[in-house]
Amino acid sequence: MEISKQFDNTIGNYDIRINGKFTFADNANFRIILDHFEEDKVRQITIFAGNLEFVDSAALGMLLIARDKAIKYNKKLILIGVNGQVKKMFELAHFDRLFNIE
Amino acid sequence: MQNSSESECTDIAEAIKCSIDVMNFVAKILPESAKTVENASCKLSKQFKDLAGSAAMQSETVQDLVATMGTIPINNQVISLDEFVAIFNSALDDAVNKLLFVSKKSLEMVYGMTDTIESVQDIERFSREIQLITKQTHLLALNAGIEAAQAGEKGKGFSVVADEVKIVSTKISKLSQAMNLRAKDVNKRIKDNYEVLQEVATIDMESNLHVKERLDSLMHGLVRQSNQAMEIMRESVDCSKNISQVIQGLTIELQFQDRNSQIAENASLMLGKSAEILANKQQASLNSDNLQIFHDEVIGEIKLSEIRQRYIEELQKEGLVKHDRYNHVEQSEEIELF
Predict the structure, then answer these.
(1) Distance in angstroms (rounded) separating the CA atoms of residues B129 and B149
(2) Smallest CA–CA separation between A57 and chain B, in Å?
(3) Do B205 and A89 touch (CB under 8 A)?
(4) What's the domain count of chain A?
(5) CA distance B299 to B320
(6) How far is CA B214 from each of CA A16, B18, B70, B138, B220, rounded to the nearest angstrom?
(7) What is the mean pLDDT of residues B60-65?
(8) Helix, strand or coil, per DSSP, at residue B74
(9) Residues in chain A within 8 Å Cβ distance of B104
(10) What distance in Å separates the CA atoms of residue B85 and residue B68, rounded to the nearest whole number?
């Protein structure tokens, strides 16, 4: 999976774009995103997943950890543009009840 | 001439006698004919009633079938297909939730183990630094020993200290080497467990997706098929009801045999009375008064008002009775049920 990120200091928002296949192998890269939840300057993290092709159960687990961190550190987490296999997996896991998905 | 006249009278008397016999015979067979029609109609009516009953029963059976369609009996309980789908989906959701819970916890352990690996790597680094320090200490002790030997008698005490430092630094070196080996072992074990956790966290959920999709399409197909079957059965129920109603209508129509029997009975009575009157008055001359009495007696035999009325009208039309003669006749009936 490729990750690119951009921080908007004025509103405290991290725009994170993830492409390709999101699997267990990406746990170290994703931890960098998880660490941002602990930063005081961050208010919101927006994950753009429109070009995400595939997620496995480990990826869903990592997203659930991100949700826990967002709640713990009082941050807003938004997922945008899921489709294809990713959308089906989100539906199977009822992520629409757990995440703010746009 | 007289003989000829007598012969004619005898012929008329014979003809009337024959007519009386015919009338009596017709009066006898007319009710029999009506009875035959009545029996056949009753039989038909009973068969139609049975048929209507069967159609009604079929309608009820299909209705019962419609009521049971789209339901599944489970443990003395009857649940609908929708409820079954909900239960199955709930079980599937529960399984998926547990998978995700395991996956999330595995990832949390992975992150915890990553931190532990870093700590163990720090320990390995510290251990290597300790070994470097002990090497330097060992060298210093060696140098101190040489210097003590050169100092001769005065350096003897210092030589003992240098030997002790050498022994201590050797012990520290061995300990740090052992610690380094143990740290490497811990690191290896954590990495091995890390791979196990990867297997736990990475559960193939594609099969769950396929199960979910196939279940959804299967259930949609079942519900659609069940609805279609119910629709067909409802139409069958309506059809059976219609058949039942038509047959009931036919059964009612068949009740004409009562009326037919009554008409035949009245016709028979009229014929019988006519034969009786003719037999009694065979020898008497038939004048207009006698004819009037004849008609009165025949009319008196008629039980069915409709027949009586028609007969009177026929007589009045032919001018055989006066128009106002039967205006007083009561419309009393013995049998007039249809």
Answers:
(1) 30
(2) 5
(3) yes
(4) 1
(5) 13
(6) 34, 94, 19, 74, 10
(7) 83
(8) strand
(9) 60-62, 64-65, 68
(10) 17
Residues near A36 by Cβ (< 8 Å), separated by ≥ 6? A14, A42, A45
3-state SS assignment for residue A86: helix
SS3 B19: helix
pLDDT tens-digit series, residues B211-225: 778 877 887 888 788
Please report where in the chains the tokens 């201590």 appear, as a residue: B168
CA distance B191 to chain A (A): 14
What is the number of residues in chain B?
338
**3-class DSSP state of B283:** coil
Q: Are the beta carbons of B282 and B17 closer than 8 angstroms?
A: yes
Range of the domain at A7: 2-101
The ipTM assigned to this model is 0.93
What are the pLDDT digits (tens) for B71-124? 878 778 888 877 887 888 888 889 888 888 999 999 999 999 999 999 999 999
Main-chain dihedrals φ then ψ at residue A16, nearest 5 degrees: -120, 125
Q: Which residue has the tokens 């012929």?
A: B11
- Domain CATH for A12: 3.30.750.24
- Interchain CB distance below 8 Å, A92 and B96: yes
- From residue B255, alpha-carbon distances to B26, B29, B263, B334, B335 in Å are 24, 21, 14, 18, 15
Q: Are A83 and A50 in contact (CB under 8 A)?
A: yes
- Could you give the CA distance from residue A73 to residue A64 in angstroms, rounded to a whole number? 14
B100 with A57: Cβ contact below 8 A: yes
